[in-house]
Amino acid sequence: MSVAPSVRRIVAVAGVVLLVVSLGISFAMLRHTAVVTCEPSVIAPIPIYYNNANSAPLVPGAKAPTQFWVLDNPATMLTLRTYHYVAPKGVAAPGKVGLVGPDGTIYGPWQAIGSPSADGVPNTYWTATTDVVLAPGLYTVTDSDPATWSVNAGTDGAGMYLVTGYIK
User: Fold this and answer.
1) What is the pTM of this model?
2) Listing from the earlier edge strand, what are the strands of the sheet with 96-100?
């Protein structure tokens, strides 16, 4: 047997009235009572996007340390990508990328997967998929082929990189 929604509402209101009367709560008190709803707390992750990319002309040959800071809260790194733009033929195959943590911990190196540049130069992007939690501190990016790692005046000799992930 199905009960109409209007009947269900009347029964619910009657139940609340009986509860209020049995507890001795006046309707005047109910008007001044705050109603709080409780829902699960959900904290959305904050995306991270560490990089040193810029639009100045490129040359191969990283000579300076390539570093980034994780500030305040641990970050989960999902990808680490380095940039090797060697036109027109690109590099033969992608190498390995990794990190050295502030305490000397070595992360990786991971075999990267190569992908072409927008203009089709092969193996320009070397990307490793990771799932690593990084504590706050200064990290150094490592690359197995610094001679082809792209740099420019904007990076002060550090190889170009991109780290993606999130902070909870």
Assistant:
1) 0.72
2) 66-70, 137-143, 96-100, 106-111
Cβ burial of 158 (10 Å; 0-12, 13-18, 19+) is buried
Taking only the tens place, the pLDDT of each residue in 45-100 is 788 889 998 999 999 999 999 999 999 899 999 999 999 999 889 899 999 999 99
Q: Between the CA of residue 46 and those of 49, 50, 99, 101, 168, what are the distances in Å?
A: 10, 13, 21, 21, 6
Tokens of 149: 């790692």
Strands (E), the chain: 46-51, 59-60, 66-70, 75-83, 96-100, 106-111, 113-115, 125-134, 137-143, 150-151, 161-167
Closest to 160 in 3D by CA, of 132, 136, 124: 124
Half-sphere exposure of residue 90: CA atoms within 13 angstroms, side-chain side: 18
The domain 46-167 having CATH identifier 2.60.120: the answer here is yes
